[in-house]
Structure formats: structure tokens, C-alpha cells
């Protein structure tokens, strides 16, 4: 039993060390601009799941609607990467204009290292993208590493609208 616990602790420690190294890599100035949005979105997702039986939002519209109904400042700019120069659209069509990608159908039982949302590398001159994980951490990944991570997790970016 003791050996089993040591193995589990080791695996968890290695997993978090790998994630931390990914997060600790230097990122471009362009990559830092939407990191703040992703950190706020991560907090929003955790408030949402607390009110929805451990389920994270499966759409940006659900995220925005929850934020708006919570009495907090529902600034639609939160859902737009600052690097795109894009303006938010109508607040009843967030899924049509949000510049980020959401991975639907995740819960608090999903692995902590699972990608829950991400930006697109083309928003950052092809240099990389921010990634939000189920555990709430936000990491910058160089483009090659970003696509490798998505492939490992079986995630395909939808075509831009």
C-alpha cells in the first residue's frame, strides 16, 4: 500500500513539473496580452461549475450568460483576444464572434492537465498560443508545442468563422 502511494505521488509530481516547465517558458509580449483574459475566464469557469454540478460551460454563450446573470461586470471584451483588433459582437451571439476556442463537455472530474480553452497561434503572429487547463492554470505554448499538445489530447481546432 505504501509503495502504491509513493508511485501515485511521484506520477502527480512529474505531471505538475512538466506543466510548470511549459508555463515557465518565456513568452512573447504578444502572448502576454491575452493571458489576463484567460486567467479571468478560468475563474469564471470555476464559478460556473460550482453552480452547475461540476460541469464546465460547453459554449462561450453559456459562459457570457452566466457572467451577465451573476451581477458582475459582463464585459464582452473578455472573450476577444486583444491582438486580433476584433470588436465584440452582439452579446446574444458570443459563440459567433469569440476569438477563443472552448473544449466542450468537461467536468471537474476531467484530468487537471486537460485543455479547456485556448487562443489561436495566428492571433500572436504564429508564435504560439495561450492555453487554459482544467486546473485553472494558463500557459503559453510555442506553436509547435501547442499543436503537439492538442494532438495528444485529441483536440482539433474548429475552422475560424
Can you tell me about this structure?
There is one protein chain. 27% of the residues are buried. The protein is built from six helices and four strands. The protein has a four-stranded antiparallel beta sheet with strand order 1-2-3-4. Mean pLDDT is 82; it is low at 20-28. It has one domain. The chain is an alpha+beta fold and 161 residues long.
Give a short overview.
This protein is of the alpha+beta class and 161 residues long.
Topology, pairings included?
Layout: H1 2-24, H2 29-32, H3 35-51, H4 60-69, H5 94-97, E1 101-102, E2 115-118, E3 128-133, E4 138-142, H6 143-152
Antiparallel strand pairs: 1-2, 2-3, 3-4
**Tally of DSSP β-strands:** 4
Q: What order do the helices and strands follow? A: HHHHHEEEEH
Strand content: 5-15%
**Share of residues in helices:** 40-55%
Regions with little confidence, pLDDT below 50 for 5+ residues: 20-28
Distance between the termini: 52 Å
Quickly count the domains. 1
* Rg on CA atoms, Å: 16 Å
Approximate shape: globular
Q: Major β-sheet, in short?
A: 4 strands, antiparallel
Question: Residue-averaged pLDDT, rounded?
Answer: 82
Strand order of the largest sheet: 1-2-3-4
The number of helices is 6
Which structural class fits the helix and strand makeup? alpha+beta
Amino acid at each position: 500500500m505504501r509503495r502504491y502511494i509513493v508511485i501515485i505521488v511521484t506520477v502527480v509530481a512529474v505531471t505538475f513539473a512538466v506543466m510548470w516547465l511549459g508555463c515557465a517558458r518565456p513568452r512573447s509580449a504578444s502572448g502576454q496580452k491575452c493571458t489576463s483574459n484567460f486567467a479571468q475566464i478560468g475563474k469564471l469557469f470555476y464559478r460556473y461549475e460550482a453552480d452547475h454540478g461540476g460541469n464546465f460551460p460547453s459554449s462561450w454563450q453559456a459562459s457570457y450568460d452566466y457572467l451577465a446573470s451573476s451581477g458582475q461586470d459582463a464585459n464582452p471584451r473578455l472573450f476577444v483576444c486583444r491582438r486580433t483588433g476584433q470588436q465584440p459582437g452582439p452579446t446574444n451571439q458570443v459563440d459567433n464572434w469569440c476569438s477563443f476556442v472552448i473544449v466542450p463537455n468537461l467536468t471537474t472530474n476531467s484530468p487537471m492537465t486537460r485543455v479547456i480553452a485556448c487562443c489561436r497561434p495566428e492571433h500572436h503572429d504564429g508564435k504560439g498560443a495561450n492555453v487554459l487547463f482544467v486546473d485553472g492554470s494558463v500557459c503559453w505554448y510555442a506553436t509547435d508545442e501547442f499543436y503537439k499538445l492538442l494532438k495528444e489530447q485529441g483536440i482539433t481546432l474548429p475552422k475560424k468563422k
